[in-house]
Design goal:
- The chain is an alpha+beta fold.
- 34% of the residues lie in helices and 28% in strands.
- A 4-stranded antiparallel sheet has the order 1-2-3-4.
């Protein structure tokens, strides 16, 4: 049997340990902690002991804010969501540039090793509007192109100046 470590009252980073709060599936003790910002969180005891958890998450948020305040490239684009590719609730950049991890050569078309089929997908305004499987690659590409024509082409045409600008960045 392992020795129990009572962490009640200890201070780790921005956290003060209040009480034991049960165990995790792996057997580690969980601890209820209060952060300096006032939030209460339950944390894995091992993560507390080794210092991988030091706050409720506010430490990371504060660090990100500080980094953003001192990053000239970020500051130059604050308030202009269109530069990031999002217009009318859709990230149009995903339709004009291919991801580095794409293996099929067609955005939104991938091969599923489990089923042995090609999958055509399209997310539009945060929801999946196309998710079909095909035996042939060309059928998946055709389905993706038809969905793009229906959903995306009107937006690409409407925001054509921005789309051209993204191509030059």
């Amino acid at each position: 049997m392992t020795k129990q470590i009572d962490m009640t009252g200890r201070r780790i980073g921005r956290l003060t340990v209040l009480a034991a709060a049960g165990r995790m599936k792996n057997g580690n003790r969980r601890w209820l902690c209060r952060c300096d910002c006032g939030n209460e969180v339950t944390v894995d005891g091992y993560a507390l002991r080794v210092g991988s958890v030091k706050s409720c998450g506010c430490l990371r948020r504060d660090a990100s804010k500080q980094t953003a305040r001192t990053n000239p490239a970020f500051l130059a684009n604050v308030g202009n969501a269109a530069l990031w590719g999002t217009v009318a609730g859709t990230n149009l950049r995903t339709f004009v540039s291919m991801r580095a991890t794409n293996r099929s050569g067609v955005t939104g078309v991938s091969y599923d090793n489990t089923s042995g089929k090609w999958i055509a997908r399209l997310y539009f305004r945060g929801r999946l509007v196309l998710n079909k499987s095909f035996w042939r690659f060309d059928e998946a590409v055709q389905a993706r192109r038809l969905a793009e024509k229906h959903y995306v082409t009107p937006l690409l045409e409407r925001y054509e100046p921005l789309v051209k600008q993204w191509g030059t960045q």
